[in-house]
Amino acid sequence: VQLQAYGGGLVQAGGSLRLSCAASGRTFSDYAMGWFRQAPGKEREYVAAISWGGGSADYSDSVKGRFTISRDNAKNTLYLQMMSLKPEDTAVYYCAKYSIDKNTYDYWGQGTQVTVSS
After folding, report:
1. What would the 3-class secondary structure string for 13-78 be?
2. How do residues 24-74 score in pLDDT, each as one tens digit?
């Protein structure tokens, strides 16, 4: 599985940004997906996850109500719509594929930088 995250950039606080993650190599609709982020000097943290069919989503408390995870299985693409961005959302954002067999995220994209200025 290859994952390519893109769409990051510099945005002012209160602004919006949409990240995308293009998947290839396996049937995208077979597995759940997630977004994670890592800020400078901090550990990687969970942001959101979505079921294989897109019918179920979960969010961390820090982004709930502001971010929306979605997927288009016909396009093999995962999305993260980010609204009302805050400076503390600044991080490198990663998409990842979940493995039921391994009970963990086993494939990761290369990350895309999101910087929110105050």
Report:
1. CCCCEEEEEEEECCCHHHCCEEEEEECCCCCCEEEEEECCCCCCEEECCCCCCCEEEEEECCCCEE
2. 987 898 999 999 999 999 999 999 999 999 999 999 999 999 999 999 999
